[in-house]
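Dear colleagues,

I hope this message finds you well. In preparation for our joint manuscript, I am sending the HAD family hydrolase (Vitreoscilla massiliensis) sequence together with its predicted structure, so that both groups work from identical material. I would be grateful if you could confirm receipt.
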Amino acid sequence: MLIWQEQTIAAVVFDAFGTVIHYPVKRNPYALLRHHWHSEQGFKHACLTQNIALPDLLRQLQLEHLWPQIQAMLAEERAHLALFPEVLTVLQRLKQLQVKTAICSNLAHAYGEDVRRLLPDVDASLLSYEVGHAKPEAAMYAAVEQQLQVPKEQILFIGDTQRCDETGPRAYGFHAQWLQRDLGQDLQQLVLEQ
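The corresponding structure tokens are as follows:
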């Protein structure tokens, strides 16, 4: 068990990109598709909550001609993905404390393989395109709780987006902490030194 801010924590859930995975090259290939939806909500739903490979999505939209450009942008992004320096140390320490770990991320299909490649030893990966919901929907946090089989009051959620990784999880009943790397924060400080 982990004692965090005087609370007993049995599981720590991390957002992926910007929290545990550093992506210094941001090409945002999905942005090329944004204008094909009537609303931002429709665009996000199509890209983040459907388990569909990008070439298939392009076929559905009759935009196959964009694949070479999008594929190049994806390859450039993915080639630079890496864990932040402290991540493995934090995960190893949590394992020693017998604390479960999970990734919960709003993510398009094209990046799922990278998350699993970089973080093969977490207890669960809840990726929005597989779950069918996106943070801050309560259903996403409910999926986390169900997958981990840990009471919500013993789950700590950490991520780099205040609305999705702090406000949403707290409203659901988790403990939560907003990670602000631009202020010099890292996961070791927020998880292990509280």
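For the figure legend, we might mention the following. The longest helix spans residues 67-79. The CA atoms of residues 56 and 160 lie 30 Å apart.

With kind regards,
E.M.
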